[in-house]
């Protein structure tokens, strides 16, 4: 794994990411590239379109069909053959891995490495497979040791693995303990004794039994290893924060030098953002749900000035969390944050439904019950629980919400001694709540527009100013929306700092070149 590998010539940041112990060499080890080497603007024809897969820069390209045909005459046999990965491809994967780990350490303050071997919640098939392989290993080891003469090859391999784990837990300065382990588990000596028949079988058997007795603490050793990795992450985070922009930019430049078409999807993304902005203002209001490219930074049709680079960039950022991309290509500069942005988009969708429900509910109790924070939190909790499957079952979810919310309002009014809702009003409440399941619902549309404008203001004016002028109708979801806004703004501003030179070069080719410099100054 990249946490154990120790390549030559690594920098301080890389070594820290890889868990390698090296002396501090100063910030000069992480240098920002002197120039940004952008690919040529001329379009070139390639067999593999860089935008065909959103995971392209996360893995090396698979061999072409021609390559497969040369290795095998039958398609089925070629498909079953292992793919040879070149040294250059392995290096590229390693670079992307280091870059991803560094990026995650910076943008996610809660980032920790966890074991990925918990099958308690996995399918029975997966659990049975692991158990079968576990038993097969020990049965095989038992058979080898029961032979005459005994075969210690599997046992030696097991001892070697145990030795590697113990050594990996040591600190760089713990040389004495490392020497003791090396002497006690000298694999070369054990192999030589086995080959020459000079192996002390009773002594080795006792050693194997003792080692097998401590195998129960392997899980503890693994946890200790994870703790060591997370301790390293915690200690290198301040250094990464100081040099993260230069480091990520330099690493991305290295990848770009090897793959000149690495920014193709980013170019398409920014082109669409610029197109959204320069669209003429609609003569009539259009529902965001019915339009796939509504601009949050509209320019009048008569405006002679092109939009600024920052404006286009902000429109692009907002498109990432406000639009459903489906199978569209994702910009390469945002791939490491794709899962994060998708989670934000899902959160915004649920907040839209939650705010819509609360707004409707409040209108039917004249705000009396909503003066109680406990009552509001109760309705929020009910709505969140009942709308977990809203994306796949909107009608069913809102049916449950309408019944439960109307009951809570009825009971709340009754408990406070106020007049309960009439049959007509209660039916109207239930009907309006159920209508929220429809995408064209007017209340849902208004809430969605206000959330979008809030995020726009957060990018332009900053979070503090935006929170001082919080949009009406969203006050009941202010804590959740403010938290999401902070994460979104910080992530986008960080991305802008890292990739701004590349964005500037791309956008100069999108907007009018003669006006680009003038508009940037403006």
Automatic annotation (TrEMBL):
Residues 22-91 are annotated as: Disordered. Belongs to the TCP11 family. This is T-complex 11 family, X-linked 2. Residues 25-50 have a biased composition (Basic and acidic residues). GO terms for cellular component: acrosomal vesicle; sperm flagellum. Pfam families: Tcp11. GO terms for biological process: protein kinase A signaling; regulation of sperm capacitation. It comes from Myodes glareolus. Residues 72-84 have a biased composition (Polar residues). Signal peptide: none annotated. InterPro entries: Tcp11 (IPR008862).
